[in-house]
Amino acid sequence: MFTFIDENGCQVELSFEENQFTVEPKHVLVMVHYQGKWLCAINKKRGVEFPGGKVEPGETLFEAAIREVYEETSVHITNLKWFADYLVHGDVPFCKSVFTGKVERIDPFVEEHETIGMIWLTTEELLNHPTLSFYMKDAGMKKMLQEVKQHERQW
Known about the structure:
This is 8-oxo-dGTP diphosphatase. The protein has about 160 residues and is an alpha+beta fold. It has a single domain (about 1-155), classed as Nucleoside Triphosphate Pyrophosphohydrolase. It is built from 3 helices and 9 strands, in the order ββββββαβββαα. Strand 4 (about 35-45) and strand 5 form a beta hairpin.
């Protein structure tokens, strides 16, 4: 278990073992590494971030992850794997499941209501991008980037 304080001052617990929290995940985040770069969405309000969002009624976490990546970036993904969960202890605690996926196909981008496009960044570019979303700057994100590289070798 990795614990840190996020950019909003909330305590966050990050686990790379499934089912470690009593709060059910209702949000997803997807880390896609392709040709040496990370897929990021450009959120109109928050800036550059990994694609993700809320699970819709009747939808599984896997279905939400695939849908959110496509809606935010026009990238179709496959080979989705659960990677981590993190629990944010805010006024209302919430849990987010993190997945990894492989690029299946890239369609031309059609602007959605939240994003204005997508961008592919190397790890160094990602860590130093000037318009990163608040959650992309915290210690948990750096830990996930370290861990996903180790897991990619095993996959």
